[in-house]
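Hi R.,

Here's the input for the thymidine-5'-diphosphate complex you asked about:
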Amino acid sequence: MKTILVTGGAGFIGSCYVLMAVKNGFRVINLDKLTYSGNLENLAEIQNDSRHIFVRGDIGNYELVQHLCREYLPDYVVNFAAESHVDRSILDPEAFVRTNVLGTCTLLRAVKEWRDGLDSAGELYKNFRFLHVSTDEVFGALQPGDPAFTEKTAFAPNSPYSASKASSDHFVRAYYETYGFPCLITNSSNNYGPRQFPEKLIPLVTLNALKRKPLPVYGTGENIRDWLHVEDHCEAIHTVLLKGSVGETYCIGGSSERTNIEVVRAICAVLDELRPHADGKYEELITFVKDRLGHDFRYAIDCGKIKTQLGWEPKHTFEEGLAATVKWYLDNEAWTQNVQSGEYRRWLEKNYTGR
Ligand code: NAD
Ligand code: TYD
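And here is the predicted structure with thymidine-5'-diphosphate in place:
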């Protein structure tokens, strides 16, 4: 049985990946600090499965990472751990430097130095891979009609979040170029699906709508994102991990560009269908609010490389995936109640009051 050290595996995308990897017969060592967005309920399905070993800790803890490597001898490391929300990065940029930049650097050094001590003729050393999960936001913003981002697009990050992710990507690349450490990087577009922390657009709008609260749309709502279902993303990551060429970067996207207002209206339409409300249509709750500072206008991904070289294809369409996602939030009331804790309420107040 192969062992994967997954970091950030209690978060939205990481938990989807951990569930998938365990289902596919891998043993997972899950290192997660359990920040506000990390949630062990995301892993409830495998809580009694001996193939999943959860360790609460920080990727920036060199001794802990080395200890886990020595103890469990991972065949692979997949790094999801990060501060992940642009609006939070605008209010507290340094938290993003600490985890996304310094944390990734320490994780890289700890894992590399553990591997350096292995028998270089052995299978573990030779086949080892480190995959770093990143975002398309490192490439900056597009205007309508601009060609989509590819692996060759120059980095031009605009937010503290994307600047910190770009920096971590550079360090991963540097570890390959300098030390020959076997790294891979994935840059994906916006994910959606079950278990996403409701600070992000799709779950935030869904949960606000259910409470008949305003649905905050930044600026004009014309900004464009490319939406990728989290399960398609995790399959792509696993494909790159097993079949990608070391030292390379792979762009992953859903080929589903939508304006934010289209997404919000689509959520409202699904709710009108599944949970009609006597007070009126959900769309009536849409409220345009002050724009995000430095709000990137458009992201779009050309995922031709992963499709042609590795044979990956997304399975979900946006319309079907979105409807199923909204339904998931309706069907999982206990999960949504529990994540809307005091910390979450404080965040809503900080980001939206007086906006
Ligand atoms: P998330 O915020 O839901 O999860 C992040 C997880 O990392 C949490 O479980 C948190 O507890 C953990 N974590 C944070 N700091 C840590 C630290 N110092 N040490 C150990 N664990 C720590 O985020 P997500 O949406 O699941 O994103 C996962 C990764 O995918 C991130 O690297 C993000 O940049 C990237 N990504 C996200 C998207 C998206 O649309 N959500 C798109 C592309 C790439
Ligand atoms: P978000 O889910 O935060 O992801 P990202 O900033 O990484 O793209 O936001 C998606 C889009 O939705 C982005 O253009 C900002 C916009 N948005 C709103 O209009 N209202 C909101 O309350 C939030 C959270 C986001």
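One thing worth noting: The longest strand covers residues 129-135.

Cheers,
M.
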